Amino acid sequence: MALRERLIGNQNIPGNASDGTGQHSFQEMKSRLHRTLINRMDLTKLSSLTPEQVHGEVSRLAETVLAQEAMPLSISERERLVNDVQHELFGLGPLEPLLKDPTISDILVNSHDTIYIERRGRIESTTVRFKDDEHLMRVIERIVSSMVDARLQDGSRVNAIIPPLSIDGPVLSIRRFGADPLRMNSLIENKALTKDIADMLQMVVNARLNVLISGGTGAGKTTLLNALSAFIPENERIVTIEDSAELQLQQPHVVRLETRPPNIEGRGEVTQRDLVRNALRMRPDRIVIGEVRGGEAIDMLQAMNTGHDGSLTTIHANTPRDALARLETMIQMTGMRLSDRAMRQQVASALNLVVQVARLSDGSRRVTSISEITGMEGETITMQEIFMYERTGVDKEGQVIGRFRPTGIRPRFAERLKSCGLQLPRVFFEEM
Fold first, then answer.
1. With the C-alpha atoms ordered 83, 85, 89, 92, is the resulting torsion angle positive or negative?
2. Which of these, 237, 195, 234, 192, lies nearest to 213 by C-alpha position?
3. How does pLDDT run across 25-70, given as a tens digit for each residue?
4. Which H or E element spans position 416?
């Protein structure tokens, strides 16, 4: 089979099968062109050019090399080869097309020839490949040399692990975040919640209730937190605190704080707890914590109990009750000697609402429960569920069937909303 024929149809993109021989030949051609360009280019000259000028220079030199070697390629094949080589020179190689796809939320490189993506909540295999482990390692080294605090320039979060810790070769995971965060209307369109629930949550934010969003990994906690934060008035000063910056608040008066890991000598670490304490001195109207996961929980609860109401945060937990138990564990991590009742009293008096989110078996995300914290009975925090998502089955396509329904319980915070001029329609709380 001629080289030209082997190349046609092997575009190395997700979802397309590729012939092994043709793909190998294309990789060899790409590697040869890559090496030739490296030998011929004046890298010191490229560093002084704009990205557009660099693109033009590499394209010109690549075309010259292709013409000299008389490679039997069509115009589209030449363009693809030049683009691939540019990705190798300045980008992340075969991952570049995946990074440019806005529908992809996660890129999971299990080995040089096994790459998965997550799209709309579902894991898919791809035909994207690295040439070998050495090729993958070069890309990982380029990521490490160019990123800051485990992030790419576009904000994507990166984790890499290499042998001997990873037995089958280098492993790379990239968590991507959309350039434009999903708004509440988009969540409604995606059936993550209903308009009635969204209206109630907007009132809750406007009335400055403290909200804890609970859910598992990939359940949509940060997405919902971003959507809720859009309801914060623009004239308020917001301080955000995150372990890894993911929030995308749109208000004009936002101060963003991010933790810092220790240096190679084990010094210079700045924890979320340090930032929460510092935020209290910054005259915040609202404090938004991306995720509580340690001792900062006690500082957050104390802030909520001392006038910093209207705060929002998330936590990893599978149920609202589990979320409260995790908060207790985090308080204990501080070493503070508080009785169980004292810890629970802090939680019960600080939080007003726990919103539970989940990723269902079909990959969709849903708000599955909204529970109000009502106080204490003895040594137990009391809660009442206001809304729930009731699953009724699965259709032929594997899509989860269900409905959102109120439990019929009128929340105690309805009076607080009323005092702020916000009235919850009675239909919200008629049991269905």
1. positive
2. 192
3. 666 666 666 666 666 666 556 556 666 676 677 777 777 777 776 6
4. helix 414-419
Which is it for the CA torsion 404, 410, 411, 415, positive or negative?
Answer: positive
Residues 6+ apart with CB under 8 A from 83: none
Whether the link from the prior residue into 164 is cis, omega within 30° of 0, is: yes
Q: Which residue has the tokens 């660099």?
A: 54
Quickly tell me which residue has 């937190």 as its tokens. Answer: 225
d(CA 195, CA 247): 23
pLDDT value of residue 3: 30
pLDDT tens, residue by residue, 136-154: 988 888 777 655 446 777 7
Centroid of chain to Cα 217: 10
Residue 394's beta-bridge partner residues? 400
pLDDT (tens digit, 9 = 90+) per residue, 321-365?
999 999 999 998 888 888 889 999 999 999 999 999 999 988 899
**Can you tell me the distance from the alpha carbon of 112 to that of 130, in angstroms, rounded to the nearest whole number?**
5
Burial (CB count within 10 angstroms: exposed 0-12, middle 13-18, buried 19+), residue 91 = middle
- 270 dihedral zone (left: phi>0; alpha: psi -120 to 50; beta): beta
When the pLDDT of each residue in the chain is averaged and rounded to a whole number, the result is: 82
- Residue type at position 52: E
Distance CA 190, CA 192 (A): 6
What CA–CA distance (Å, rounded) separates 17 from 295?
49
| pLDDT reported for residue 250 | 79
Buried b (16+ CB within 10 A) or exposed e, 65-83: bbeeeebebeeebbebbbb
Exposed/middle/buried for residue 228 (C-beta within 10 Å: 0-12, 13-18, 19+): buried
The first and second tokens of residue 205, run together, are: 């934010």
Residue 353: phi and psi, rounded to 5, are -145, 140
Q: Assign 2 a pLDDT band (cuts: 50, 70, 90).
A: very low
pLDDT score of 145: 67
The per-residue pLDDT for range 398-419, each reduced to its tens digit, is 889 999 999 989 899 999 999 9
d(CA 373, CA 413): 10
Q: Where are the beta strands (DSSP E) in 243-319?
A: 254-258, 286-289, 312-316
| Alpha-carbon distances, residue 368 vs 247, 365, 424 (angstroms) | 22, 9, 20
Strands 157-161 and 104-111: unpaired
